[in-house]
């Protein structure tokens, strides 16, 4: 009997390490960042995404120096605590990204879609990976519905094609790139759902195969389930169960342990489990 091919794709898990006190989960200092990083890696994260500037539109924009002061001690702490783990920097400023790369990061996660013209040159020069987001929003400025695009999928393809052209001109290779459909970034909740459902079209249209899925605790989840960010993890699992994953994809999440468990069980049910599976007695009942 021929065994069916595997159907479950297990993505890389990117754990969120927010240094900004304005973030929805609250900020962490260097000491707490070390603890959080070790916990996330122990729970299954292979990438740690460090950010110093929240994108919340009800908080003021930090200056470059304020962002650096907030972010760099956390990047350095995470690099020291988890030296074999890939570190990503979440920023839309090339100056901040460069400093974070010097501090130990090796991925730039730019949620603005190359708002800073110097970002492409930096990524080309340093030969690091870049997450390119689809976002028409200006960071820290709330998009009103009258400014939303009519067809987000068509606009996503046009927007990202333009950004890829800029990156090509700067000398960035396609294998350095990861696409981000940008849920919540300058989109209504229903538009976020549309771009997530249509994200596989981005791979085909743009020739970049890897996708970052930043669905954790997003507003579109909150709009569906009417819960605060801290209560949106079950809704996040629902989103993860529906997205069309491909090898090399990344999921950016806050609850690393829960998401790792989710994919462990999903893989077993889709692909089967070889060998004996026993439940250790200590896990049979809650203490």
Question: What report would you give on this structure?
Answer:
This protein has 287 residues and is α/β, with parallel strands linked by helices. The protein has a single domain (12-283), classed as Dihydropteroate synthase-like (TIM Barrel), CATH 3.20.20.20. It contains nine helices and eight strands. It has helices at 30-43, 64-81, 94-103, 118-126, 152-170, 189-206, 219-225, 233-242, 256-271; strands spanning 12-18, 47-51, 86-90, 107-110, 129-133, 177-180, 212-213, 250-253. Strands 6-5-4-3-2-1-8-7 form an eight-stranded parallel β-sheet. Helix 2 (64-81) links the parallel strand 2 and strand 3 (86-90). Helix 1 (30-43) packs across helix 2, helix 5 (152-170) crosses helix 6 and helix 6 crosses helix 7 (219-225). It is globular. The N and C termini lie far apart (44 Å). 42% of the residues are buried.
Number of domains: 1
Report the portion of residues in β strands.
5-15%
Kindly name the structural category: alpha/beta
Rg over CA atoms, rounded to whole Å, is 19 Å
- Which topology does CATH recognise? TIM Barrel
Helix-strand pattern: EHEHEHEHEHEHEHHEH
Give me a quick take on this structure:
The chain has helices spanning 30-43, 64-81, 94-103, 118-126, 152-170, 189-206, 219-225, 233-242, 256-271, and strands spanning 12-18, 47-51, 86-90, 107-110, 129-133, 177-180, 212-213, 250-253. With 287 residues, the chain is α/β, with parallel strands linked by helices.
Mind sketching the topology for me?
Layout: E1 12-18, H1 30-43, E2 47-51, H2 64-81, E3 86-90, H3 94-103, E4 107-110, H4 118-126, E5 129-133, H5 152-170, E6 177-180, H6 189-206, E7 212-213, H7 219-225, H8 233-242, E8 250-253, H9 256-271
Parallel strand pairs: 1-2, 1-8, 2-3, 3-4, 4-5, 5-6, 7-8
């Amino acid at each position: 009997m021929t065994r069916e091919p595997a159907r479950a794709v297990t993505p890389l898990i990117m754990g969120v390490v927010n240094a900004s006190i304005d973030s929805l989960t609250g900020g962490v200092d260097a000491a707490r960042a070390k603890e959080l990083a070790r916990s996330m890696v122990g729970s299954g994260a292979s990438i740690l995404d460090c950010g110093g500037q929240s994108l919340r539109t009800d908080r003021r924009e930090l200056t470059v120096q304020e962002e650096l002061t907030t972010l760099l001690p956390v990047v350095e702490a995470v690099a020291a605590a988890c030296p074999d783990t890939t570190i990503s920097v979440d920023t839309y400023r090339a100056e901040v990204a460069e400093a974070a790369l010097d501090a130990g990061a090796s991925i730039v996660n730019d949620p603005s879609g190359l708002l800073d013209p110097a970002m492409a040159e930096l990524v080309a020069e340093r030969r690091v990976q870049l997450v390119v987001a689809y976002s028409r929003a200006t960071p820290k400025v709330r998009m009103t519905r009258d400014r939303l695009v009519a067809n987000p999928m068509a606009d996503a393809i046009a927007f990202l094609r333009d950004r890829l052209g800029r990156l090509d001109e700067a000398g960035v290779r396609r294998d350095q790139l990861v696409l981000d459909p940008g849920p919540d970034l300058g989109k209504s909740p229903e538009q976020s759902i549309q771009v997530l459902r249509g994200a596989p079209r981005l791979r085909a249209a743009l020739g970049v195969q890897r996708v970052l899925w930043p669905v954790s605790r997003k507003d579109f989840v909150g709009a569906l389930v009417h819960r605060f960010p801290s209560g949106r993890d079950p809704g996040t699992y629902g989103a993860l169960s529906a997205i069309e994953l491909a090898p090399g994809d990344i999921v950016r999440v806050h609850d690393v342990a829960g998401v790792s468990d989710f994919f462990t069980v999903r893989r077993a049910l889709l692909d089967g489990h070889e060998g004996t599976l026993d439940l250790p007695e200590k896990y049979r009942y809650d203490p």
